[in-house]
Amino acid sequence: MYEDGEEPKNHVRRISVVGMGRVGTAIANAIARRGTATHLALIDVQPNRAQSEALDLQDTIPFLNPLQLTHSTEISASKGSHIIIITAGARQRPGESRLDLLGRNVSILSSIIPPAVKLSPNAVFLVVSNPCDVLTYVAARLAGEKAAHRVIGSGTNLDSARLVSALSRRADIAAREVNAVIIGEHGDSSVAAWSIATISGLPLRAISTDLETEIIREQLLREVRGAASEIIKYKGYTATGVGESCADLAACILSGSIHVRPVTTRIPGGTFPVITESIYFSMPVRLGGSGDMGILVPKLDERELALLSKSASVLLAAQQDADVHLERVLGSTT
């Protein structure tokens, strides 16, 4: 592990991507384009999948930064990683309950996380698999007490970027001038923190009074929440946006500086008066070489706090469902 403010020794930056479906492939491609890693391992249980993606990506290297690529079906290929990105997960079968699907995903993560922690004891784990918040909780428990603080989820980083983009278009102002964040669940109960949103450092009302109306805000939030469904309707899947989002998070972690991004992490009970139990969901976090370097707690209005409480309740129920399967997995290893 390197201290924040320093780069990894010899400027070597090792990233492993576990799960080379469309999302894993998009993440690997984005990392390669950005030059975030010097060494990139592609891992998938399907014998030819990681190899084919590595061969395809290899053709881009003459046009990009130098990159050493490896591929494997074994988690052992992740040894010595600075970041391990998890996109592996099960798809829901016809007639399968959400609880059964969660059980299969717990089993998949239990085959990945514990051995990966041993192989890369100082790695930051970035969970992308959905449902992201509850699987980040699962991964943190599987990682063990000493490594749990280095487990984060991609969370609402992409949701927040979609809100920034929507506000940018609405106000006709460059996206880089917009500061807005989605918190809570990466899903239907997500909360837009309107009370802290700014454009060029100014409150939204200073740019346009329309941006403070309930109708416009609900319209923008529907646009954010429906973005994935809209893409899937025409394309069949989403990948490019989440690929860039995760490459952005990886770059933040390896930069040697502190950056703030909304990611899934452990929110201790009492962080907000409406949340009494610890929960995993998205908050603005100081990202550094150890992953979560501290939560930044925004000052929310009463309506936002009420919505956040509902979001936390949804996720707490999901965590409790996960506990049923985790006790079986963790109990078998003791």
UniProtKB/TrEMBL annotation:
Binding residues for NAD(+): G19, M20, G21, R22, V23, G24, D44, N105, V128, S129, N130
Alphabetical keyword list: NAD, Oxidoreductase
Active site: H186
Organism of derivation: Gracilariopsis chorda
E.C. numbers: 1.1.1.27
Pathway(s) of this molecule: Fermentation; pyruvate fermentation to lactate; (S)-lactate from pyruvate: step 1/1
Protein name: L-lactate dehydrogenase
InterPro entries in the cross-refs: L-lactate/malate_DH, L-lactate_DH_AS, Lactate/malate_DH_C, Lactate/malate_DH_N, Lactate_DH/Glyco_Ohase_4_C, NAD(P)-bd_dom_sf
PANTHER family assigned: L-2-HYDROXYCARBOXYLATE DEHYDROGENASE (NAD(P)(+)), L-LACTATE DEHYDROGENASE
Domain Lactate/malate dehydrogenase C-terminal: 156-319
Domain Lactate/malate dehydrogenase N-terminal: 14-153
Organism lineage string: Eukaryota, Rhodophyta, Florideophyceae, Rhodymeniophycidae, Gracilariales
Reaction equation(s) it catalyzes: (S)-lactate + NAD(+) = pyruvate + NADH + H(+)
Kinase keyword on record: no
Family indicated by similarity: Belongs to the LDH/MDH superfamily. LDH family.
GO molecular function term, any single one: L-lactate dehydrogenase (NAD+) activity
A biological process term (GO) from this entry: lactate metabolic process
